[in-house]
Please model this.
Amino acid sequence: MTRYECMQKLAARLEQELVILSLGASVDEWYDAAPHMREASLFQQQLGCVTPQAFGLAVGLPHRRIVSLDTDGGLMFNLGILATLANEWPQNLFVVVWDNECYQSIGGPPTHTHLGRVDLAAIARGCGIVEAHTATTAEEFDAHCARGLLAEQPYILVAKVDRTTKRDVKRKHSDGREDKYIFVRHVEASEGIVIMGPSEHN
Model:
């Protein structure tokens, strides 16, 4: 299955959620697959930080569903977050891991999952996360999305996607700094709160 078709299925289920996602080709694919979620998505540019940031958001907004779109390479940079999720037990966090078994954005060198020995869902279960699963078909993926978005405990879904990237997608033109402000202003408006007040000039 492809990452893009999975994104389309997930996007069709999202309305008021907030999304944190990883760098690389998945950014443009998500921008294209989920146009209604653009302002509600924070395009993170650092490996190892996606699910930790999503966890922080889940703790700060416990009444709101938070979705992390991580990668196999990114999660391997910070496996400790799985133990944190098991101990802290956020009831509003759904984590999808795009596992294409390579670092695609830098030319495709293999990640640790490429030999089939490293099982990210099993690692999550070993940390104590009960709802940690692997999907190998689009139908399985969609079914887990339905469950994960309603779960009252951390839910990890490893999506075994191929290395196909959709080429004819609408490119995201904003940079990282602009993305941050767009996302924060969306959270402020939808939550009725102030996170970043107006600039003060002395």
